[in-house]
Design goal:
By secondary structure, the protein is mainly beta. The chain has a single domain, classed as Nucleoside Triphosphate Pyrophosphohydrolase (Alpha-Beta Complex). The protein is built from two helices and nine strands; from the N terminus they run ββββαβββαββ. Strands 1, 2, 3, 4, 5, 6, 7, 8 and 9 form a nine-stranded mixed beta sheet that branches. A hairpin with a 5-residue loop joins β1 and β2. The longest helix is centred in the middle third of the chain and has 13 residues. The termini are far apart. The relative contact order is 0.22. The structure holds ligand LXYW25GO. One of its GO terms (cellular component) is cytoplasm.
């Protein structure tokens, strides 16, 4: 079992984890593995591999388990690099509010395969498809993948899809 909280204590919100696998392809381009969610919350969106923590599970152990369940790929907890601790608030659907711990991992075994939960696909790090991802991703993920450790909150509007406020410096919203 791995240590519980690589980015400090978690809040009382429901906890989820997400892991962005990265690799450098034959032409030297860094790619990030995303998956198109086949069902549930965020169906149709491209997301990192991850999901809810099970009772008593550490966030690192959850990330190891979710990566395997969703893609067949094996990662080790010690290879997970903490990127971000994010709080998502949905005032119009409080049951969706949650806290996410995000990791990057560039060391893994196996090739991603489609699972019951998602269809995996590699994307260029420099050209991530933000228009097909959760709205918050465009604000923090490029910073995190460039090496910043992020702690931020995002509040979603009544459409349950659009970020309407955030405490992350530099975020400008329409
Ligand atoms: C930028 O990426 C994300 N932003 C936001 N706002 N939310 C995200 C992002 N990536 C994933 N999520 C959310 C969507 C879901 O609430 C959770 C993951 O849930 P999931 O349903 O995949 O969790 P599982 O544990 O796999 O589901 P089951 O327990 O139902 O199998 O994170």
């Amino acid at each position: 079992m791995a240590d519980a909280e690589p980015l400090g204590p978690a809040s009382g919100l429901p906890q989820v984890c997400v892991c962005y696998l990265t690799r450098v392809d034959a032409s030297g381009v860094t790619r990030v593995l995303l998956g198109r969610k086949k069902g549930g919350l965020g169906a149709g969106k491209l997301v990192g591999l991850g999901g809810k923590l099970e009772p008593g599970e550490s966030v690192l152990d959850a990330a190891v388990r979710e990566v395997h369940e969703e893609s067949g790929v094996r990662v080790r907890a010690r290879d997970l690099v903490p990127l971000a601790r994010l709080r998502y608030f949905f005032p119009d659907r409080p049951a969706w509010s949650q806290e996410s711990t995000a990791f990057r991992c560039d060391s893994f075994e196996g090739e991603p395969v489609e699972s019951d939960e998602l269809v995996p696909e590699w994307f260029e790090l420099e050209h991530l498809p933000f228009e097909r991802m959760w709205h918050d991703a465009r604000f923090w993920l490029p910073l995190a993948l460039a090496g910043d450790q992020i702690r931020a909150s995002f509040t979603f509007g009544s459409d349950l899809d659009t970020v309407v406020s955030s405490d992350l410096p530099g975020v400008t919203l329409a």
